[in-house]
């Protein structure tokens, strides 16, 4: 095509290194916080200027954002990716055709660069996740709480489930592949108890995205594009199910999704939020 | 193939948006190709125009027109990206899944195919979250890409699911592109086909093509190249194209006629096209052989 040298991109152009945090938005922050505590998360810090809480469990950071939220049902509204250089990742994404997210930072707060993802969700880029973290600037830690509570039964981020409109799988594959270097897993390779859709693996091999089109016959079901659920990895699912049940979490106990060695699915909480357990030996 | 596969471009009709929507609907069409000017130039504002379109019951075939997008750099590129984003948001508001993007005529655009590919990949990526497909069309006076085979090379090289071709019979015929080259195109990557003819044999120079294209097109069945238009549709149909056909007939005379009358001509033209295509699609009758009789 061109006399210009066309050099291949590295497989992980942004240096993605896992999920830094998952952010939920809800106007029922307290009720959701109580649910998160049953799931093993502990509230560890509060945002300096907004109604935003940081929950932690093992390697997982989970942010609950009630600032301006009107919908009571907790919804995943952002994924923050650990990257080599946040500014570069942001610029690289814009150059390729991502939509810039307007900044939300107030004075003296960190500006976390981000782009628009599916539906109303955002994708943030974070490069401070080792000795110094983004929470050190924007959050006030609760002096009575452990800053790094251990994980229940080795729970860790496994992935995020995204619903998409019919015949949109290929469009979204293009999106995640060209922006971030995600690769699709061969059909038939599934994890957990909800084997459907298309699975994408992050270029760092640390988490997955699952794309789900509406099932056949669901023409009358209201089906939007968005992030609908997170998957928590557990090295031993029955052990994790038992530990969480003891903390008061209810799992769907019949049909195809009942707890097994492969995975489990919680009941629907707070009008629409569920969590999935998936057998996983990723690092907790 | 039936009337549901055809629609009309609003640029073909006179009058305000509501009159166009009504004329198209009353002529029996189920879809309409919009021009961004119909929406943003509406006296009641953008929201009123979107509401009128949604209330019409017509499906939106697509929105035109993103011009001179590809091959620019620096400030010009950034400016065009802003324009593209605004048009994609307009598509989204209209529930429209196709944005028509014409090959660049800009003297500031580079001929480098790799840059053109990269820019169209960017446009396609911008369109993904809004569920819009980009239909890239070779304008016959495009600066670097001016025939559909060149546009197809770009689209194939870019290799993005939501980036495909728009084919316009006017440009194919005016630039005398060999219709057999359609066989090189993947019919699944044709996102839109626009149909029109014109009344004289040749439009040789770029200037003649521009003048004819903007002022003197007619409906298929009314011009002197209509057999070629029918041949193009027949080939696409045989290749398996099942997408939309839209009558894009820029004609100064039609803009002085009631939209109802022009929409009626469009309906006659749709019948002319389907009659010609289905007649030719029938298998050739061959003499009976002894084996048939056995």
In the predicted model, the low-confidence regions of chain A spanning at least 5 consecutive residues are: none
What distance separates the N and C termini of chain A? 46 Å
What is the CATH topology descriptor of the largest domain in chain A? 2,3-Dihydroxybiphenyl 1,2-Dioxygenase, domain 1
E-strand count of chain B? 10
Please give the number of β-strands of chain A.
Answer: 15
Short structural description:
The complex is a heterodimer of chains A (284) and B (294). Chain A is an alpha+beta fold and 284 residues long. Chain A has helices spanning 29-38, 86-96, 135-138, 169-180, 237-246; strands spanning 19-25, 42-47, 52-57, 60-65, 75-82, 114-116, 122-126, 139-141, 156-163, 183-184, 198-201, 208-212, 226-234, 263-265, 275-279.
Structure description:
With about 280 residues, chain A is of the alpha+beta class. In chain A, about 15% of the residues lie in helices and about 30% in strands. Chain A is built from five helices and 15 strands. Chain A has helices at about 30-40, 85-95, 135-140, 170-180, 235-245, and strands at about 20-25, 40-45, 50-55, 60-65, 75-80, 115, 120-125, 140, 155-165, 185, 200, 210, 225-235, 265, 275-280. In chain A, the strands form two sheets. Chain A has an eight-stranded mixed β-sheet. In chain A, a hairpin with a 2-residue loop joins strand 3 (about 50-55) and strand 4. The longest helix of chain A has 12 residues, at about 170-180. The mean pLDDT of chain A is about 90. Chain B has a single domain (about 5-280), classed as TIM Barrel. Chain B has an eight-stranded parallel beta barrel, surrounded by five helices. In chain B, strands 8-9 form a two-stranded antiparallel sheet. The chains are: A alpha+beta (about 280), B alpha/beta (about 290). Chains A and B meet through helix 4 of A and helix 5 of B.
